[in-house]
Specification:
five-stranded mixed β-sheet; about 325 residues; alpha/beta; D-Maltodextrin-Binding Protein, domain 2
């Protein structure tokens, strides 16, 4: 499920992102690097902001600039064009970039399981995923939503062809609360948390509990050129980011404070609730090749990729824990 894809434009426009790299820096000075997020800052990025605030990137010799994406930001193209050093990509966007020959490589998982889910009204007719067969399901309009619905319905013994999909954009909670749909696609760390805080009772069906493997939804990504020509930069970036998420695991409230300090517009209660449910999935482990192979097969079988990826090419499996 790609929230980042909703922000991608058809062409590379001017983004205001400064040039990458640390040319002209004094010897021994931290190397300048840029990271483009997948979406506006939120709890899933807590480890990055903790690493920034605690000086973990500086300790690793990196002067990191974190860039929030804009409506015209196409992160895969920015990476391929050398306009940013790193980006957080939805794993499906990384797979599509690989099919387009953009030579990008995932170097670290940000989350250890997919965030996609189907949400259903507690009082409604969808008691389990196969009950979507014959009922109305709200989707954003992205192909990944249909893949999630198909996966869950078929895995639970239903017929995906019987689902009445209705495009509702990003209005899952409001549409469910108003009874306009019987179920809707969403994120268990976002819309499901929002509904709970608003007192709207829902059933939550996570996609990796119905058909999909526990794939890492968000991935820290760089270019193959950067990986080959500046391996120390990549290794340092991964190590510092992993250190930030390890800190978040141990000290979630302190890490949350770093996120909120970086973006005061965020509401503490919302981000605290999201981080609470996310913490088990933010464990900073390296990639699992077997899980990536399972995801690749799942994504291609549901039309998200034309064919399974060559996982060893699209992901750097050598980054240690």
């Amino acid at each position: 499920m790609s929230r980042a894809a909703a922000l991608l434009a058809a062409a590379l426009l001017a983004t205001g992102i400064a040039g990458c790299g640390g040319s002209g820096a004094e010897p021994g000075a931290p190397k300048g690097a840029t990271l483009v997020l997948d979406f506006t800052p939120n709890a899933v990025h807590t480890g990055i902001y903790a690493a920034q605030a605690k000086g973990f990137y500086r300790d690793a010799g990196i002067d990191l600039h974190v860039q929030v994406p804009g409506e015209s930001t196409d992160a895969p193209k920015l990476l391929a064009a050398g306009r940013t050093d790193f980006a957080i990509l939805d794993i499906t966007d990384l797979g599509i970039a690989d099919e387009k020959g953009l030579e990008l490589v995932g170097v670290m998982p940000i989350v250890q399981r997919p965030l996609a889910a189907v949400l259903a009204r507690q009082s409604g007719p969808v008691v389990r995923p196969r009950d979507m067969d014959g009922h109305t399901v709200g989707v954003t309009g992205l192909p990944s939503d249909t893949a999630v619905v198909e996966s869950e319905v078929s895995a639970d013994g239903g017929d995906p062809a019987g689902v009445d999909e209705v495009t509702i954009g990003y209005n899952a909670v409001a549409s469910l609360a108003a009874g306009r749909v019987d179920a809707a696609t969403g994120f268990w760390n976002d819309e499901a948390v929002e509904a709970r805080r608003r007192g709207i009772p829902l059933r939550v069906f996570k996609v990796d509990e119905y058909g999909a493997p526990p794939y890492p939804e968000l991935v820290l990504t760089t270019t193959r050129m950067t990986l080959e020509e500046e391996p120390e930069l990549v290794e340092s970036m991964v190590a510092a980011t992993r250190r930030g998420y390890a800190f978040t695991e141990r000290h979630p409230q302190k890490a949350l404070a770093d996120l909120l300090a970086a973006d005061p517009s965020l509401e503490r209660a919302d981000q605290e609730a999201q981080l609470k449910v996310l913490l088990p999935a933010l464990h900073p482990l390296p990639f699992s090749e077997s899980v990536l192979n399972e995801w690749s097969a799942w994504a291609s079988s549901h039309g998200l990729l034309e064919e399974p990826l060559e996982v060893k090419s699209a992901f750097d499996l050598g980054q240690g824990g």
